[in-house]
Amino acid sequence: MIHIDLTDQPIDVAAALRTVEDDGAGAINTFIGAVRNKSTGRPVVRLEYEAYDSMALHQLRKVAEQAVEQWPMLKKVTVIHRKGTLHIGDVAVVVAVSTPHRAESFAACHYIIDTLKQVVTIWKKEFYEDGDVWVAAHP
Amino acid sequence: MNLKIALFGIAREIVGQSSLEVSAPEGQSVQALLAGLREQYPALGRLSSLAVAVNNEYAEDGVTLSERDEIALIPPVSGG
């Protein structure tokens, strides 16, 4: 019921949603993170995501398991994160969860994406017309 | 003992390679390893945070390291 993936291929969002369908789930909640054209006012040309694969997969699974502990009614959880070079509009991450009722699906999806951003060993470098920056690296 | 440390993101760029061999006394702690690396590469000390992972888990300062561990330096993550 937990499906985790880290891929250098474009994420098939429709396929990801199908993995959380469940006859007992009246609610499917999805977060899709996409590449924005600006960062703190600066036009972004592209992003590069680098991952410590084994730890990222392990930590992603832990985050999903923590969500299941907190919301035991979760039927299915899917988290797919992209790595490599991404351009404006590309999908970087998909979190999809299914639950019997909607409130828990919102809460669990929110928890998973917020915790992912804090602990999962993936790094994003933003490229601009005139330079590049590792996001969040410096205070 | 010799510790092999995997490097990612800005830590990899600061050191200039994707892994590092460090010779350390037996029972070296995470804290001591970090202190030594920050001394050798001062730019590491200017990051918002710098953690050590041991066998795919975040390790507290007091954890002791062994040659058999898979060790990595974890600069501020920015997935999502």
Automatic annotation (TrEMBL), chain A:
Subunit structure: Heterotetramer of 2 MoaD subunits and 2 MoaE subunits. Also stable as homodimer. The enzyme changes between these two forms during catalysis.
Protein name as catalogued: Molybdopterin synthase catalytic subunit
Alphabetical UniProt keywords: Molybdenum cofactor biosynthesis
Upper taxonomic lineage: Bacteria, Pseudomonadati, Bacteroidota, Cytophagia, Cytophagales
Catalysed reactions, semicolon-separated: 2 [molybdopterin-synthase sulfur-carrier protein]-C-terminal-Gly-aminoethanethioate + cyclic pyranopterin phosphate + H2O = molybdopterin + 2 [molybdopterin-synthase sulfur-carrier protein]-C-terminal Gly-Gly + 2 H(+)
Keyword Disulfide bond: no
Family: Belongs to the MoaE family.
Pfam families in UniProt: MoaE
Pathway where it operates: Cofactor biosynthesis; molybdopterin biosynthesis
Automatic annotation (TrEMBL), chain B:
CDD domains: Ubl_MoaD (cd00754)
Coiled coil: none
Gene3D superfamilies with a match to the protein in the record: 3.10.20.30
Superkingdom field: Bacteria
Pfam family membership, one: ThiS
Assigned keywords, A-Z: Nucleotide-binding
Family the entry assigns: Belongs to the MoaD family.
Name the UniProt record assigns to this protein: Molybdopterin synthase sulfur carrier subunit
Origin species: Hymenobacter glacieicola
